[in-house]
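Structure catalogue
Derive C-alpha cells from sequence
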Amino acid sequence: MIEVEQLVRRFGEFEAVRGVSFEVGEGEIFGFLGPNGAGKTTTINMLVTVLRPSAGEARVAGYSVREDPRSVRESIGIVFQDTTLDDSLTGWENLRFHADVYDIPMKLFRERAKEVLQTVELEGRRDDLVRNYSGGMKRRLEIARGLLHYPKVLFLDEPTLGLDPQSRVALWDYIRGIQQREKITVFLTTHYMAEAEYCGRIAIIDNGDIVALDTPARLKESVGGDVVTLRTNDNLRAGLELEELRLEPRIEDRLIRFEAPEGAATVANVFRQLTPDILSVDLHKPSLEDVFIKLTGREIRDDGASEADKMRSQMRSGGMMSPGGRRM
C-alpha cells in the first residue's frame, strides 16, 4: 500500500530525511519510532503530499506523491500531530466541512458521519461545540473525520501526544478496532514505546535514517540477552573492569548498561568481580527502549524543539492542500 524508495527531504543545507526506503503492506499497522527531530513528521508530510520530496520516490495506494498528489489525497485520511479542528463549530459541522472538501454527496455524508461517530462513541456529542470536547474526544473526532471518505490508508502523526495514559489506551482501542473493521492500512509516527508495541512492524528512525525495521519481537531479540543497568561510585573504573570481563558496557546518565545472555548469573559474577561499590542494579528483558539505545547510543527523549515545531512556519506559509489541490 506504501512504497518508498530513497526518499530525501532537505531544508536548505539541512537533510531532514536521508534516503529512506521501506514498504507497507495492505491492512498493516506500521510504525515510525524515533525521538523528536528524527525525521518522522517530515516523512509523513511527504507521503501525504504536504511536502514535496527533494529526491527519491514514494507511492501511496498505487499513486506517486510527485506525479499524482491529488489521487494520493483522495486515498488517505490524516490525523496531524497538532489539532486542525475548528473549535467554534460542532463535531457534526467539522465533519460536514471535511465532506465538502472531499465532495462527498449530502446523503452519503449523513450515513457515513453517523457511522464514524458511532465508531468513536461521539454520536451523542455531535451537536456540541468542539471547544467543549476533552483532548481525547478531539482526537477521536479527528480520527472519525479521517475515516469519513473511506480512505485506503490512515496516517496518524503522534496520535496520542498530550493525552493522559488512560485516554491514550482508550484511543488505541478505537484505532485497533477501526483498523480491523475498516480493513485499512495504518501508518503512524510515535516516540512512545508502549504505542509502538501495537504495530505489526516498526521502522526505527534517527537523524533522518532508518536504523532498523522489523517486528517488535524480533527487534527486541536483536538486543542479544537480558539488559543490566548498574550505578556505582566509580563508573569509569567499573566500565573498564566490565570490559575485562568481556562485557560491552555503555556509560550514560551516571549509569552503566550492558547486555548478557544469562543476566542473573552475570550480575552475580559482577558483584564478585567489581572493585567499585555497586549502588543499584536493574535486570530486565529487552524492551524497545533498549533496542533504540543499542542502535543509537541514547534514549528517546522529548527535549529540544519537536520536528512539528520546525515545520509549522513552512506549512503555515504554504498552507495545506485539499484533495483537489485547493488551499485550505
Q: What stands out?
A: Residues 302-322, 324-328 have pLDDT under 50 and may be disordered. The radius of gyration is 23 Å.
